[in-house]
Amino acid sequence: MTWKRVCATGDVAENGLELFDVDGISILIVNHGGDFKAIPPLCPHMEEPLAQSGICDGKVLTCTKHLWQWDLATNEPQAETEKPLLMYDLRVAVDDIEVFVERELEYEFDEDDDYDDDDSFWDD
Ligand code: FES
Asked: What distance in angstroms lies between residue 12's CA and the mean position of ligand 1's atoms?
């Protein structure tokens, strides 16, 4: 494949996350402080959709399901986070966000995780 236009830079609000379809592949664009990252749509922990459960504070992306976190500038997992994010190469061409997609990036998920699927720090 080649570089593909995903959206305009203005389509993703600062510190926002937006899901896009690029030739049948779901790609989540994160705007962290005016910089952008392109990642798979699911949390690498337990497949939580980050478009719904992800929060970006401009520097760190947090999955609110079990609070895994990543520094978006370095892709360093924070605190107890056990896996880095997979990232597509991304470039900004004038006002367009483009990603280089050779294949869909997917995480390998553990079958026997310690967490219950319904556990969340935000649930009662
Ligand atoms: S599913 Fe995202 S932190 Fe657990």
From this structure: 23
Q: Enter the tokens of residue 80.
A: 């107890």
Q: What is the pTM of this model?
A: 0.89
Tell me, using a 6 A CB cutoff, whether residue 45 lines ligand 1.
yes
Distance CA 112, CA 52 (A): 24
Q: Where are the domains of the chain?
A: 3-100
User: How many C-beta neighbours within 10 Å does residue 73 have?
Assistant: 12
83-124 pLDDT tens trace: 999 999 999 999 999 999 999 999 998 776 555 555 555 555
| Side-by-side strand order, sheet with 17-22 | 17-22, 25-32, 35-39
What is the second-level CATH architecture of the domain 3-100?
3-layer Sandwich (2.102)
Whether ligand 1 lies within 6 angstroms of the CB of 66 is answered as: yes
CA angle 65, 69, 75 (to 5 degrees): 140
Q: What are phi and psi of 38, to 5 degrees?
A: -120, 120
Ligand 1 atom with the smallest distance to the CA of 48 is: 1
